[in-house]
């Protein structure tokens, strides 16, 4: 869990309690701590993290109150709700509340986080009711792959999973055993960021290339790693997207010119328009470009040109076989 989500969970828990929570109650129940808490064992590392988080909350101006501060074990922590309420002169209009709710909805769908759903609940308490018209316009990031839900559950429960994955060019899928770290959407597709046991390193998998069911391995879990997060996954995908550039010529006025021109960099007036496109996956881009047929000519890189050519040859061969039969 990202630091900001753990702090958000802590704030929600300390606002919800009137009598305050002890340190052990926080560590054993609050999201971001409880996953690493061990009953009757050494939790010193987690305790130090809680101390740092308390300092962070105070630096953010959040009124954290300590009850019985002289007894570290029995000390109770809370955030007095009256001190954390918005100032009396701050008001949100109905339109502003709907925009806040819309932002929370997008955050919830994009981060796949139970904590962001709680944020939406908190917004409703400010007056953004379920009947607001904004619900009809709220964008949703949808997942169509069957592996999405089981991977998301395994991520929440820190379970090791196995699945069969078909890489482009392979004749058959290979079994992969991974610890899921994040499920993220980038460039219109869902990706799994995971620790791959076979590779001994982190890997990113396209959900659309997972073949068959995702299987949870019995009695196998993994520990949290603050360096392997959704933010890390998105940063790696962004770096890959920035480093991969294709140059294609598209027929002026064609469907390819309209669609690819919106995504790339192209001169406005040209008989044969050259477009520069960033991409994360060469094979996915080759599938798309081949679909435009003669409207597109790939200039660079050569590997992409060959990939598109192979797909077009396959189409020709398939039609030839169909005609001969």
Largest sheet: spatial strand order? 7-6-5-4-8
Q: How far is the first residue's CA from the last residue's CA?
A: 57 Å
Shape: elongated
Order of helices and strands: HEHHEEHHHHEEEEEHEHEHEH
| Rg | 26 Å
Structural class: alpha+beta
Strand content: 15-25%
Number of domains: 4
Number of helices: 11
The overall pLDDT average reads 81
Organism: Cryobacterium frigoriphilum
Protein name: WYL domain-containing protein
Question: Care to give the gist of this entry?
Answer:
By secondary structure, the protein is of the alpha+beta class. Helix content is 42%, strand content 22%. β6 and β7 (201-206) form a beta hairpin.
How does this structure look, described?
The protein has 325 residues and is of the alpha+beta class. It has four domains: 3-84; 94-136; 148-227, SH3 type barrels; 244-324, no CATH class. Helix content is 42%, strand content 22%. The chain contains eleven helices and eleven strands. It has a five-stranded antiparallel beta sheet. Strand 2 (65-67) and strand 3 form a beta hairpin. Helix 5 packs antiparallel against helix 6 (114-125) and helix 10 (282-290) crosses helix 11 (302-324). Mean pLDDT is 81; it is low at 108-115 and 123-140. This is WYL domain-containing protein. Residues 148-211 form the WYL domain. Residues 248-315 form the WCX domain.
Keywords for this structure?
WYL domain-containing protein, 325 residues, 11 helices, WCX_dom, five-stranded antiparallel beta sheet, alpha+beta, SH3 type barrels
